UniProtKB/TrEMBL annotation:
GO molecular function, one term: branched-chain-amino-acid transaminase activity
Family the UniProt entry places it in: Belongs to the class-IV pyridoxal-phosphate-dependent aminotransferase family.
The protein's Enzyme Commission number: 2.6.1.42
Protein encoded by which gene: ilvE
Protein name, as recorded: Branched-chain-amino-acid aminotransferase
Organism: Kitasatospora paranensis
One Pfam family named in its UniProt record: Aminotran_4
Reaction(s) the record says it catalyses: L-leucine + 2-oxoglutarate = 4-methyl-2-oxopentanoate + L-glutamate; L-valine + 2-oxoglutarate = 3-methyl-2-oxobutanoate + L-glutamate; L-isoleucine + 2-oxoglutarate = (S)-3-methyl-2-oxopentanoate + L-glutamate
Names of required cofactors: pyridoxal 5'-phosphate
Protein's UniProt keywords contain Amino-acid biosynthesis: yes
Annotated pathway: Amino-acid biosynthesis; L-valine biosynthesis; L-valine from pyruvate: step 4/4; Amino-acid biosynthesis; L-isoleucine biosynthesis; L-isoleucine from 2-oxobutanoate: step 4/4; Amino-acid biosynthesis; L-leucine biosynthesis; L-leucine from 3-methyl-2-oxobutanoate: step 4/4
Length: 300
């Protein structure tokens, strides 16, 4: 069950959690016409801090532009609202969900007749894939094709693709789905980007493979460069994961999580040495201990 917080930011006002309601004939509920972000707040020595807030809000704005969804608020307004909300809810650490969708006003697919509703919610939500190294299974569902719906937009409707893949994997007894692009190259997991380490080189698939340009992915690439690890953003085959020295996944909700096996091929080590170093570097960055990356933090 979700851990309820006192208030939700709803179209500009802080309203009690249970009063943040919408009509059943909301456009976005029927047609998936919405965009979203998932951001985390971490406890630091200077108090709670939002990690890479501006980057998340810029991605929200880009997603809205790709959908032609009018976003009434600027990223500056949404950043201020985020800080206001996290303060009002009194969190030390939390997850923040920004989303905007076509609201109530008209039915039918035409996107021009419905107003946008914008919401920011925050709640306490520990990393949800924690614990044991993950067992991945290649999904029978291909990642959304860029010419069907753009995977670069973090939009609500397209998450049906991820939800089908996640459900298939967990029904079969695995932890998470590995999704391939239409051309058969590796894309990403249902809600995380994927990395391999092979011969000391770190690799992750490009956006052209239908992978979201993850902010944690970008963080991991920057931290790897700090550590002097060679990084390559390039196409991967599923067999590259079978043959890798290490595999891990990462995302805002999950953090940096080692993979133990891919399609029942056990990885030689989980977590491997590079994964461990990157997970430690990630913890140091989000907690503000790594002074080089203080610019990623917005104090609440
Ligand atoms: N891919 C997908 C499909 C996702 O939903 C997410 C979570 N936002 C990610 C990757 C990871 O992105 P980020 O690191 O920005 O959370």
């Amino acid at each position: 069950a979700i851990s309820e917080a006192p208030v939700i930011w709803f179209d500009g006002a802080l309203v009690p959690w249970r009063d943040a309601r919408i009509h059943v004939l909301t456009h976005g509920l029927h047609y998936g016409t919405g965009v979203l972000e998932g951001t985390r707040v971490f406890d630091t020595a200077d108090g709670p801090a939002v990690f890479r807030l501006e980057d998340h809000l810029r991605r929200l704005e880009r997603s809205a532009r790709m959908l032609r969804l009018p976003l009434p608020q600027s990223t500056g307004e949404l950043a201020a609202a985020t800080v206001e909300l996290v303060r009002a809810n009194g969190h030390r650490e939390c997850y923040v969900r920004h989303f905007a969708f076509l609201g109530y006003g008209a039915m039918g697919l035409d996107m021009r007749s419905s107003p946008t509703t914008t919401v920011i919610a925050s709640w306490e939500w520990p990393a949800y894939l924690g614990g044991e190294p993950l067992r991945l299974k290649t999904s029978s569902w291909r990642r959304n094709d860029p010419n069907s719906v753009p995977p670069a937009a973090k939009a609500t409707g397209p998450y049906l693709n991820s939800a089908l893949a996640r459900r298939e994997a967990t029904d079969a007894g695995y932890d998470e789905a590995l999704m391939l692009a239409a051309d058969g190259t590796v894309s990403e997991c249902s809600t995380e980007n994927v990395f391999t380490v092979h011969g000391g080189v770190l690799r992750t698939p490009p956006a052209a493979a239908g992978a979201l340009e993850g902010i944690t992915q970008d963080t991991v690439l920057a931290l790897a460069r700090d550590l002097g690890v060679e990084v390559r953003v390039e196409s991967l085959l599923r067999s590259d994961l079978y043959a890798a020295d290490e595999v891990f996944v990462c995302g805002t909700a999950a953090g940096v999580v080692p993979v133990g096996s891919v399609d029942d091929r056990e990885l030689p080590s989980a977590p491997g040495d590079v994964t461990k170093r990157l997970a430690d570097a990630y913890r140091a960055a989000v907690s503000g201990e790594d002074l080089r990356h203080r610019g990623w933090l917005t104090l609440v």
